[in-house]
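ESCALATION

Customer reports they have been waiting on this structure for their group meeting. Please prioritize. Original submission:
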Amino acid sequence: MRTYDLAPLYRATVGFDQIADLMDRLLTDGASTTSYPPYNIEKTADDAWRISVAVAGFADRDLSVEVRENALIVSGRKSDEDKDRRFLHRGIATRAFERRFHLADHVRVTGASHADGMLNIDLVREVPEALKPRRIEITNGDTFEGKAVEHVAN
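Update from on-call: job pushed to the front of the queue and completed.
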């Protein structure tokens, strides 16, 4: 496996920390990621998504959904009520987990629901008005906002 040193990128750029951090995270997490619990990411609209996590065997009280520093953290920890039970075969994994999803700027969680062994988390991108494109009215070259512009002669 190849490893990449991103230190030159940090030294040569200003303001691109998020991109460098994302690349660094993707390159280092690739080998250590687990597949438990399985999940889907579905695009439900142009600026909306749904993350569905398979959490069979977990109750609402065993699950936690949290947003911290542009990261969605989904975790589950089964309560100790199964410790007195004796299983002949245990095929349903109920081990503790923590799954992290990096959220882009202006993406927020609008809700979470748990039904039929699936935890569904809805997300939407809400771009602030200041960042949305604006149309600027073009006026006559001699006037600006209703006032005449004086021409300076050299």
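Sent to customer with the following note: The chain has two domains: 1-33, 36-127.
Escalation resolved.
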